[in-house]
Structures are given as C-alpha cells and as structure tokens.
Amino acid sequence: MGDVRNQSQAWAIEIEDVEGEYKAPQSASSYLQTLRSGSELSKSKEAIERNVFTGSIGQVKPRTGMFAASGTIACEFRAASTEGGAPEFDKLIKSALGGKRTLATGATLAGSTTSVLKVTDASLWKSGDIVMIKVAGKFHMSPIILVNETDDELTLLVPLADAPEAGTVISAATVYHAAEVGHDPLSITRYYEKKVRQYMPGTRVTSMALSQFATGQTPILTFGLGGLSFEQDLHTQAHNPSYSEVLPPIALSACVFMDGVKTHVNEVSFSLENTLAYKTSTCAPNGRIASTIASRRVTGTLNPYMPDDSVGNFQKFKTDQSFSLFFSARLPKSTEGEIENVIAVYIPNCTITEISDTDADGLIQESISFAASLGANASPEIFVATI
Fold it and tell me: Which of 48, 155, 236, 253 is most buried, by the most CB atoms less than 10 A from its CB?
C-alpha cells in the first residue's frame, strides 16, 4: 500500500448520452490537461437533525440526505493544435455557453475594402463570429458585426490597415457563443495513481471565468461545476492521456479594443455565471434526477489608462451607453506579422456598472466593472473563438 500523490491526477470529460448516467472516458483524447492548483472535486451530504427527546443534552445520530457534488477545473487559455480546431476544454466551454459553430477553412476574398469583406457565400458566417484575415505579413483579427447575405459581404468591427487583395484567405475557426439550449450534461472523472477513480455524473458548468489576462502573464480559464451525484472506487485507468502540445499564449501583443478602438489596458477579465435549477424526486436514490440552466449573467473588468483629453468612459457610465469589447491572445509565427493558435473573446454589449480611479505607478487607470447584455433580437452576450 502506498500514499496517493497529488501530481498523479488525470482528468477526463465526456458528454453524457443520458443525463445523470455516468460515461467513463472513451479514449486518450477524453482527457484535459488541468492546472495543478485550482482544480478540485468536492462532495458533501446534507445532515438532517432529529428533534427527539433522549434524556440527554447530547445530540442523537442525524440522518443524511442528498449528496452535494461540485468542483472546479482550471486550465490554460489556449487554442487548438490545428487552425480552427476545438481546444482541449471544448466540452466544458460548450456546456458553459450552449452554442458552437465551426467556420469552414479556405474562404477567399474578392473586391474588399478595409472594413467590408467580399466573400463567395456570406451565409457561412454569423454576426459575432471572429475571423482572422491572412494578409501576408499583416494577419488581422476582428469580430463580424454585420452579415449581408444579399451582397455576400461581412462588415468588420476592427478595420484593416489596407484593403486586402483578392484571393486573401479567411482562416477557419471554432466559435462558441451564449445560447438558450445546448448546455450538455457531462461526466467528470478524476483518476489518482491510475487506479483511484472519482466521478461526478450529471454535471453542468455553473461558471466560467477568465483571469490573468494581464500584461506578460499566461491567461487562465476556470470552470465551476455542479453535479447530480458523486462516486469513488478503485478502477484501473484505461488510457494514457493524450494532451495537446500547443503552448499557452502570453498576454503580449494581445490588444484590447473598446468599440473597435485599440485601448491600452493592463488587465481584462470576464466571468459567466449559470444558475442551475435541479429537478428532484423522492424516487431518485440521491433526490436529484436532472438539472437545467435557469439563467446566466456575464460580467467583467478592465483598467484602461485615463487620457487627459477625454472623459468618454465616464460619459458611458453616466448615460448607460453600451460599448463592445474585443481582445485576443496568440502565438507568433516565424514570419513577422503572422500569428497562429489564436484564442479570442468578443462581448458586443457592455454597460459600465462601476468606475473608479486607481494609481498605477504614478499613472491613473480607470478601473471599470461592466455587465454584458443581449443585443438586438436577443443576440448572444459573449463569443469565444479558437483560430
């Protein structure tokens, strides 16, 4: 007999075929490379006190009720190994947001301008999708803010420096977006020493938060979890995990845009909170038989430097004027000006809820807290793309 070592962990995620029915890891690619700190599973049982006389001031043995299963998974905020592919945390972010689209590769431009792209079939994209235009030596990132299917045109939030030549390629992408449905139930598995198995069936993602998107740091994505039940047993791990070898980005050359205008900040973050509603039944062994996402809320922060010729951010705060927020991180290619393994975030409608002045080594930063809201026709509050 030996002791279980902390570094021996292996985590796996599977989308359940039937909610609440545990699905074990199916292959080596089912595993997710988590951070050593910030990833955990928690279990507890409700204590039900018995209010009876015993002739003593002591407590009688209580009964225990439903399991409460929860956890967190923290991972590096990094893209896939192939252009436009899904990242390792694909199942988690899909469960958190609900919506997912895969944009075809190899689309080429015709007679475009700096802000309007001419394509063969504009119906392949939706407003909010994030694209990379692969101009030689000047790769360019931007969300799409308008899709004109009649004229096959895509309008960009962030314009290019120059109109792209005909034949310029738009990259492939996987885009995740907030949706009303599609929040897949998951089975979460953690192995210790390849033989002690813990698993949480019927899991939903209760939160998703981006942190450490700060100058010179490695951004981190953390998922909060809520499950229907929890089990632990001795079971041999069937696979050796196959982890992505893509390096995580560093928040350098990772520009932030407010309303499409490049804005110098030292840090930006967001948090999505999903409220779970549990369906319970006296017939269920653990009381809970299903869950659903009842509501969601997206908030965030950023800290732009205060200019001496504008009070624009205060005016946004004072008048409840919405602004868009777009930022991305990437790895540089060997050719200057070209990038790969990009991961990007677009929040179209942000409202400032709090603003304060902060001393940053003698410079004043505006510490802004914001809340995201639905757009026209209930368009999604947030988009995350891997390119």
Answer: 155
Please work out, in degrees rounded to the nearest 5, the angle formed at the alpha carbon of residue 18 by the alpha carbons of 13 and 20. Answer: 70
Burial class for 2, CB neighbours closer than 10 Å (0-12, 13-18, 19+) = exposed
- Mean pLDDT in each 10-residue stretch from start to end of the chain (387 residues)? 82 97 96 94 85 84 83 96 94 98 84 93 94 95 96 96 94 96 97 95 97 97 96 95 94 96 97 94 86 95 95 95 97 94 97 96 96 89 97
Alpha carbon distance 204, 206 (integer Å) = 6
**What does the pLDDT read at residue 286?**
83
Q: What is the reported pLDDT for 43?
A: 86
Q: What is the 3-state secondary structure (H, E, C) of the chain?
A: CCCCCHHHCEEEEEECCCCCCCCCCCCHHHEECCCCCCCEEEEEEEEECCCCCCCCCCCCCCEEEEEEEEEEEEEECCCCCCCCCCCCCHHHHHHHHEEEEEECCCEECCCCCCCEEECCCHHHCCCCCEEEECCCCCCEEEEEEEEECCCCEEEECCCCCCCCCCCCEECCEEEEEECCCCCCCEEEEEEECCCEEEEEEEEEEEEEEEEEEECCCCCEEEEEEEECCCEEEECCCCCCCCCCCCCCCCCCCCCEEECCEEECEEEEEEEEEEEEEEEECCCCCCCEEEEEEEEEEEEEEEEEECCCCCCHHHHHHHHCCCEEEEEEEEEECCCCCCEEEEEEEEEEEEEEEEEEEEEECCEEEEEEEEEECCCHHHCCCCEEEEC
The residue written with tokens 């919405």 in the block is 322
β-sheet bridge partners, residue 291 = 278
CA distance 144 to 147: 7
| CA–CA gap between residue 174 and residue 196 (Å, rounded) | 35
Q: Dihedral of CA 122/124/126/132: which sign? A: negative
Nearest Cα to Cα of residue 60 among 47, 74, 42: 47
Only one residue has tokens 């079971």, namely 235
**Partners of residue 117 on adjacent β-strands:** 154
189, 225 Cβ separation under 8 angstroms: no
Report which residue type is found at 219: P
Q: Would you mind telling me the total number of residues written for the chain in this entry?
A: 387
- In this prediction the pTM is 0.94
